[in-house]
């Protein structure tokens, strides 16, 4: 039997959102706080941007971080399994 979804209200960049998911409310609040922090950073670096452009640039920055972390993770996996690394280098 699956866990009931959690529901939590969060504030991101001055707007309120209701998040619903299978993670804990604390986790969802942490995610929202990180998104808010990243949006504030983008906004402070580019104060003339509209909220929509701040959101898009924030997503671009977060996806960039995600892809770099994924590459680091893949590299670590290859280092842990030399046979796979040798096969992919052939």
How would you portray this structure in words?
With 90 residues, the chain is of the alpha+beta class. Helix 1 packs across helix 2 (51-80). The longest helix is centred in the last third of the chain and has 30 residues, at 51-80. Helices cover 66% and strands 16% of the residues. It contains three helices and two strands, in the order ββααα. The chain has a two-stranded antiparallel sheet.
- According to DSSP, the number of beta strands is 2
**Averaging pLDDT over every residue, what do you get?**
92
Low-confidence stretches: none
Q: What profile does the largest beta sheet have? A: 2 strands, antiparallel
End-to-end distance: 46 Å
Strand order of the largest sheet: 1-2
As an assembly, this protein is single chain
**What is the overall number of helices?**
3
The H-and-E topology, N to C, reads as EEHHH
- What gross morphology would you assign? flat
Helix content: 55-70%
Structural class: alpha+beta
Report the sheet-strand fraction: 15-25%
The rounded Rg comes to 18 Å
């Amino acid at each position: 039997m699956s866990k009931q979804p959690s529901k939590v209200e969060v504030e991101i960049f001055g707007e309120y959102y209701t998040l619903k998911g299978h993670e804990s409310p604390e986790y969802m609040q942490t995610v929202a706080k990180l998104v808010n922090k990243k949006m504030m950073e983008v906004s402070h670096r580019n104060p003339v941007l509209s909220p929509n452009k701040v959101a898009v640039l924030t997503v671009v920055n977060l996806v960039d971080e995600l892809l770099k972390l994924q590459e680091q993770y893949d590299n670590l996996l290859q280092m842990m399994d030399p046979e796979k690394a040798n096969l992919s280098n052939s």
